[in-house]
Design a protein that fits this description.
heterodimer, A: alpha/beta, four-stranded antiparallel sheet, 9 helices, B: 10 helices, globular
């Protein structure tokens, strides 16, 4: 069964008369890890927000778990991670992770048990009682991931979650995210700017092009799991990175020069 | 501990410096015989030690020392101010929450709330006394109306800052709450109110000192003799003979205001858990 089904989705913004998305068709199967990549303005974040019912599409339909996106949102069918961790300063790490569970009306004992599990999963057991500002950026983002996964949503939406982190932290968190994903078997939509990150993490990479936002091509990533540090040195990895880059470049002919530079 | 000690010594040094400035000004003006902007003598500017000596002396024969009298009066005024502060803070916060949820109500009522603060408290105090006092049960008679007057000064900054604070929630955090399909009520209690607390506490600090001023002024038209307001009126009449008594009363009133302020700061430390750079 497909977890996400996007049919003929178009999104225009009245202000500036911008077509952010034009006639997008995409289907995500259960357990897939799909990255959306493209230059700024290609609509990748908008597409993610449409899936999460944070932005309504102008035309077309999105179903999540066979339900309209709005229904899926109110049923708590997905967890979301933004570029910033968006943690609540006044809550401890444990209480931040428990936030969605409180909304779902879980009992105190059940919440505590789940928070313990999540702290183990993101390896922050010793930081349960810390406040967010006492953590590094990478740790904050791990808390944010734990919060998004705490209620075991079928779908995890991630909008450039590691975009603000340094490269070393980013690579370590990539590995962590993959091991969590393998453990939980959830479906992930991952928006990124980074070609190598997209290839390293995904089972499929969706390449998008701007003005109007369209799908330029889809690359199946057939690298074996589990992926490790060595995966990044595999010739097949480089071949796939090149393939994604070619797709971006071909579509990039009508890009503004600075956008093209960003991708090369 | 070392930091607390250092802070205490800074406060003490500032107090000493102020005393020094007072006496220095006094000395220069009296020895030079300057009369601008006012004549400096023992009536206009009594010696600091005269003021402090007044604390230990009775104001009338067979009366307790001034400090004892002022202590009882400041407990009375403090009670009015505390109740006024609490009522004003709760009412101000509630008005802020209601107005934050309706732009229409905000447009309609905010001008009147602002207008309420431009009317001098002395002008409304007699009405409040006449309206409120008859409705109060026995133990609240008299001082209850003064507490209401104090709350009139307190609620305004709390309302204004609550309004601002409730709107200070991070838009991305609001979006996160949307993904949980959170109700308005849940968003209010779990996100908007906690986010507003640094703003609310900034207002409570203003309100703390305003409530003491409100209580003192509220006592004047109420004709109450038991508080600092009554003492100030009383010592005003004898100012040309015993100026140090009014000055001593002012010192006590200031100390009461500082006590209220410090209590709010202490509460803020406990309640507001925020990254140091995000505290408003």
């Amino acid at each position: 069964m497909s977890v996400v089904e996007i049919k003929g989705v178009t999104k225009t913004f009245a202000r500036g008369n911008v077509t952010a998305l034009e006639n997008i068709e995409l289907e995500l199967q259960h357990g897939e890890f799909v990255s959306l990549i493209g230059p700024s303005g290609c609509g990748k974040s908008t597409l993610l927000r449409v899936i999460g019912d944070l932005t309504p599409p102008t035309a077309g339909s999105v179903t999540v778990n066979g339900k309209p996106a709005r229904q899926a949102r109110s049923d708590g069918d997905y967890g979301i991670v933004f570029q910033d961790s968006v943690l609540f300063d006044w809550r401890t790490v444990a209480k931040n992770i428990a936030l969605p569970l409180e909304m779902l009306g879980w009992s105190r004992d059940r919440r505590r048990a789940r928070v313990e599990e999540m702290l183990d999963l993101v390896e922050l057991r010793n930081f349960a009682d810390h406040h967010p500002w006492q953590l590094s950026g990478g740790m904050q983002q791990r808390v944010s991931i734990a919060r998004a996964l705490s209620f075991e949503p079928a779908l995890l939406l991630m909008d450039e979650p590691f975009g603000a982190l340094d490269e070393m932290t980013r690579e370590r968190l990539n590995l962590e995210l993959l091991s969590i994903w393998e453990k939980l078997g959830s479906t992930v939509v991952f928006v990124t700017h980074s070609i190598s990150e997209a290839v390293f993490l995904s089972t499929r990479v969706v390449v998008m092009s701007p003005r109007p936002g369209r799908i330029a091509g889809v690359v199946d990533i057939d690298l074996p799991f589990p992926r490790t540090v060595e995966t990044r040195e595999d010739p097949r990895f480089f071949a796939l990175v090149t393939q994604v880059r070619e797709l971006l470049r071909k579509r990039g002919e009508h890009l503004l020069p600075e956008e093209a530079a960003e991708l090369l | 501990m070392a930091a607390a000690l250092r802070r205490a010594s800074v406060v003490a040094a500032a107090a000493l410096a102020l005393v020094g400035l007072w006496e220095l000004y006094r000395w220069i003006w009296t020895s030079a015989g300057w009369t601008w902007p006012f004549v400096v003598d023992k009536t206009s500017m009594p010696h600091v030690w005269t003021i402090f000596r007044a604390f230990g002396q009775p104001t009338q024969v067979n009366q307790p020392a001034l400090i004892t009298i002022l202590f009882h009066k400041s407990v009375f005024t403090g009670k009015e101010a505390l109740v006024g502060f609490a009522v004003g803070a709760v009412v101000g916060f509630a008005i802020g929450i209601v107005l934050a949820h309706s732009r229409l109500l905000q447009r309609g009522f905010l001008p009147y709330i602002v207008a309420s603060q431009t009317i001098p408290i002395l002008a409304i105090a007699p009405m409040v006394v006449v309206w409120v006092n008859p409705k109060l049960p026995g133990p609240l008679q008299g001082w209850g109306a003064v507490a209401v007057i104090a709350s009139y000064l307190t609620f305004f900054p709390v309302t204004i800052n609550t309004l601002r604070g409730l709107r200070s929630a991070d838009p991305r955090a609001l979006e996160l709450m949307r993904t949980y399909a959170a109700s308005r009520w849940t968003i209010l209690w779990k996100l908007r109110v906690p986010a507003s607390l640094p703003y609310v506490f900034a207002a409570l600090k203003l309100a703390a000192t305003a409530s003491v001023v409100g209580a003192i002024i509220g006592e004047l038209p109420s004709g109450l003799q038991d508080g600092l307001g009554g003492a100030i009126i009383n010592f005003n009449q004898y100012y040309s003979f015993e100026p140090q008594e009014l000055w001593a009363t002012n010192v006590v009133a200031a100390a009461l205001g500082i006590l209220f302020f410090v209590a709010v700061v202490a509460a803020e430390r406990i309640v507001v858990r925020r990254a140091p750079e995000n505290v408003a």
